[in-house]
Fold this protein.
Amino acid sequence: MLETATDSRAARIAALEALDTRLRWLSAWTIHNANHLRPSRDGLKVGGHQASCASITAIMAALYFHALRPQDKVAVKPHAGPVLHAIHYLLGQQSLEQLQAFRAFGGAQSYPSRTKDVIPVDFSTGSVGLGVAVTAFASLVQDYLIAHGQLAEADAGRMIALMGDAELDEGNIYECLIEGYKHDLRNCWWIVDYNRQSLDSTTADRMFRRFDDIFETCGWRVLTLRHGKRLQAAFRKPGGQALQDWIETCPNADYAALTYQGGAAWRARLNADMAGDTAALALVAAHDDAALAALMTNLGGHCIETLIEAFELAAQDERPVMFIAYTVKGMGLPVAGHKDNHSGLMNPGQIASLRADLGISEGDEWARWGGLGDNSAAELQAVVDGCSLAGHAPEPLAAPVPVPALAVPEGAEQATQAAFGRILLDLAKSGHPLADRIVTPSPDVTVSTNLGGFVNARGLFRRQELKDVFAGAKIPSAQKWAAHAAGQHIELGIAENNLFLMLAATGLAAPLFGTRLLPVGTVYDPFISRGLDALNYACYQDARFLLVATPSGLTLGPEGGAHQSINTPLIGMGQPGLTAFEPAFADELAAMMEWAFHHMQAVDGGSVYLRLTTRAIAQPVRADDSWRAAALKGGYWLRAPGSHTRAAIAFSGAIAPEVLAAADLLAEDMPELGLLVVTSPDLLHRGWSAANAARWTGAAAQLAHVDELLAALPASAGLVTILDGSPSALSWLGGVRGHRVAPLGTDSFGQTGDLPDLFHRYRLDADAIVDAVASLLD
Ligand SMILES: Cc1ncc(C[n+]2csc(CCOP(=O)(O)OP(=O)(O)O)c2C)c(N)n1
Ligand SMILES: [Mg+2]
């Protein structure tokens, strides 16, 4: 007999249903193994989220084994990590050893990780909300590449987030929605696992339909997958309308509790609530307890047919789509619906009975197709082998972009912020290939961070052309503001969090889309804190970007305490994946930017943070270039100490004039005073730690750069450390070789004022430095 299209669709749905079950089993078993079978050495709970996985296995089976295309990229909600590993295990791309080492050292990570997992992970997730929003920014980056001729429109993928419903509470989602609307977001799907449970309990009923409104307002199509096909069929039967009405008005908590209690509880409640409606009662009575429980949990997010229909509908155009897929947290597990099931684990008895229900023999738990006959196994294998992930080769390494030598801007007095703008402008005008790959996102501080010159030269980016109305009306303005497809500046709204997610997405252009972009994002230094989690998130997944934070510290002067950054040098030191520099002089900055463009492209490289200022200061006259290499390692002697030196001043950034003035005041008494420019407390400290670690890791012994620098200072000498920021960024220098330290810096909130007043009040002036030197000699 010939197979019809309907038969083959039905067979496909049946296969995907079986794969849903496999994923539920394998994810549950992986977590069970980590918690109950693998020996524990520390008594800590290993954890894992069986209920969060079971909630989304149907969605992931339908997506990965049916709807996904090779060019699509997915962010998987953190707690469904084991499902992603199970998918790759079925594909033969994940090893048994990795699954058995889930949450163990070197094993599959608890939450999908681009850098630490051995399977391909498009976006890391973990901090809820960020992995969702990054897909929208990735889609904007994809559009940028298409507009710049770096990617064919036909190769455009969908950027997809599989998200928990509690992620909808994160504010960054709404900041992203607004930005997405402004930039005409497309090719983005967010699939909500709408189990109406978060970590602590069930979620607020009052949000019902609010999400639809919010997303639709922002241009999204909302597809609500509330009921599965079996429930829909029941609704069409006599009494069905009453059942539907009951379900649709049932509070989240009641629904979850009844799901947990099972068939008999459903029956008792429905019979009570629909008493008098003979048809509805008959409909309920036509199901035994098990069938009734199965019917009542046949929600859209568990119904393969509903899911693939929705994906097909959404795929008809490019509009961003939010799928609200109703689900049951812990679906198919004994913990289903229980409000405490988020971190709840099945006990050994429960997992054994689930195993038995699935026909899997003891000892066969890890078998890919355990419990299935040969024919079914072969059928499922064929579906799996036919999916887009099978045989999908990783993106080839994107070709590096050459980096030219960056010239130092002219000027006897310069501020690092102005020099930054000048260097970028020169680069833009040079026509060097590097300039073509620079993208400059900024959250409404383009002009005030000196990106304006670059933007004038290279234009704003918009897929659709946007005229500069002021220029058109011949109203004088220093800033051109026309946008077009070839523009290279991405103007964001003021929400700094979006800057960091945009840097994350742009900084992943090479691994995601095969073309390197070199993002240079600007922000006011104090407002780094607003996007700190997103910054960490970007670094965690090894996105490569240059963050230019300016102005900073007390040099903001009249802007006052609310704008003064204090602890950002410590953020720079503490953030893995980010090398922080604070240049004092323009030539240091040019060297750092050149270094940064290399570092952003190096295999073992990373991102770079430059803390700049608007304070113009006198530039040093250099005898030669010998400072340069040392500056790029974190510091150099501006005036080297001698064998009789009794004190040295180690300083960072724009308080250089105060340091030099103090040196002048001390010149007579201390002709051999040392002046150490610390260009990067971060690099110095990292180098020191690495050298210490080398002693016990067996790596070749090395002298840390900071050790080498301070070796020049006699052991009896004292060290004044000073920067326009938290003094602890430098005070540790005394620990390297035991020099006595007098630390200066700011560790309280600032206020308005001019620099002499502020530097005096916060003890950053020459007098304070002289006092500090004196204190060391007492
Ligand atoms: C930013 C952040 N805050 C808190 C947590 C801790 N946390 C992990 S999961 C979760 C709730 C998840 O609920 P939901 O998104 O609905 O996922 P699901 O129900 O599918 O497990 C919370 C609060 C986190 N991972 N990230
Ligand atoms: Mg949830």
Residues 49, 52, 55, 77-79, 127-128, 164-167, 193, 195, 197-199, 329, 342 surround thiamine diphosphate (ligand 1) (CB under 6 Å).
